[in-house]
Amino acid sequence: MTAIAIWLNSEDLRNPAWWVAGDSRVTTSGGNADDGVKVFSLPVICRTADSEGYFSELAYAHSFGYCFAGSTIMGQNSYLALVPLLSNLITAPGYRPSMENVAQYVHSYLRATFDSFKLVAGAGALFDAALFGYCHQTQRFRMFHITPKRTEADGTVLDLSEALGPFLYLGNSREEVTERLDKAIREQAPGAGLIGMAPAHVIQQCINDDSMPGIGGSIQFGFANAAGFQQLAVYKPRVMGEPEAFISYMGKELGADLSYVGDAKVSRPAIPWPWG
Questions:
Q1: How confident is the model at residue 70, as a pLDDT?
Q2: Which domains does the chain have, with CATH numbers?
């Protein structure tokens, strides 16, 4: 299952960003796998026609954060399908879609996929997804939530709404974790209301909590600002309090065998953790 929190980190007022922290546990019939990717960069790329009529001129390139909780098949397969669709848009010169346009398209695709998959998987098809980032069209940070909704006419369908709160939580133990996140944010941000990394610590506590068996593995991070979405690895001490550290990606150390492709070095931005 899952625990993912998304919040607007405003510690740096000159460069606020949506931050996301999540666990990596995927529950299967055979047990738990603790290296599930649930946080992704969703690119949106538009091209216009060149002088010969070929759509080769880059008009707009941006990326948003995309994450999911629930059905891994729905979450990962839909992402893999959306990337080639949204990264190959053709437009008139000067046009670029808004983030709301992108959210509506993602919702339409997920709804069609879900309507087919639920006939086979039933409740196993249920999942939540979030799209978050900076919208250049409206020049503000926005976040959209796609979640199951029960209707009389069509049974369970996927609903799209804009998330307007200081944070959004996707995953298990929703009521308990939401209360923890709300408390952590209120305690960290009295008066000025500046939110830092408190929600990430809540997610780490959930990963460590044996009473929440559906949440586990390692923590994964990313952030979305005006430049787009960046997924992060984690820079961790081998022993707490000692200087030696290593880079971990999805719980795996990026040692010598995973740091190079031939003579090309893997450049994976990393955040020190625990932090703050």
A1: 93
A2: 3-231 (3.60.20.10)
